[in-house]
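Subject: for your reference before the review

Hello V.,

The reviewers asked for a structural picture of the protein, and I figured it would be easier to keep everything in one thread rather than splitting it across files. Below is the amino acid sequence we used in the manuscript, unchanged from the supplementary table.
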Amino acid sequence: MTSRERIIRALNLEEVDKIPWIELGFHGKIVSEIIGEEVILNSGFHFLGEPEEYEKYIKQMIKLTKKIGLDALHLKCWAPTWTFIETSSSRDSIAFGTAGKIKNEKEFKNLEPEFIKNCEVSRSRILQCAEVFDRVMKNEEIARGYDIGGVFTESWESMGFENFCISMEENPELVKKVISLFGNFYNGIIEEVISKFKVDFVYSADDLAFKTSPFISLEKLREFIFPYFKETKKIIGDIPWILHCDGNILPIIEDLIEIGIKGFHPMEPQAINIFEVKKKYGDRICVIGNLDVDLIERGDKEAARKEIKKLVENLGYKGYIFSSGNSITEGAKLENILAIAEILNKKG
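And here is what came back from the structure prediction:
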């Protein structure tokens, strides 16, 4: 069974020969340690640069998959959210959002033309890199996906969370205008990608919850966010859809399943009991997760091995994909990554 077959079968709740492995992101520092080459350092999310630079990167990621048995790679198709967000840089020159710029209708109108212009730049870059991704992956047996960002997350980041929440009540039309910019971009780009390239799965990253409960009520999600999710499902059809969402999504999981989301990542260990979710929903969804990131970074090898085996032995070979509890970060211990590879690559 190839990696591609393994991922698709797992997402379709069919039995696999060994448990597949997927990650939202893999920090360049860790990739460098594994493949023995210098890799561009990044936040852990799959890099998207100039097409020539991206080709070098994706070839290095393919080497990673072959070294450790990772079963899937995906290309980031994110909107130019930075148009609406004040940013600062970390020591790795990575921009992090600090505050949303949209406080009212006037600021939205001032920034909207710039966002639309930047969307076209982003669209062009994404399609150029998608061509590279498709060509380089053509003869590989690795599952290939496309990662659209988060309509909810990027909308509230653009406005600031408190302002976003207040505006849902006091100025809902402004909120809907902001959301529509992201929803239309993501649904437009994934429709174009599907029409031109081979797509094994769609991955969307949209944090909807605290560790205890969703950020906003189910009623508000149904009014403001889920209409765009439903449109995404219409566009992607039978292509499996994975949602990355930290926190406790159990109060809204029935709606998400009904919309058509098939894979749920990462089942954050501090928020959700993945074993209970598998027991209750395992005939309807594929659970993806959830080795604690803190254990990967700080735990010793034996502690990591124990937890990996617990996940494998209790979640099984049907409707389960292994992953960290978020992504492989800069602080991950190499010995723990190699322990994952060793255990997962044992078939049967």
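For the response letter, the relevant points are probably these. Residues 90-94 have pLDDT under 50 and may be disordered. The longest helix spans residues 105-137.

Happy to draft the paragraph if you're swamped.

O.
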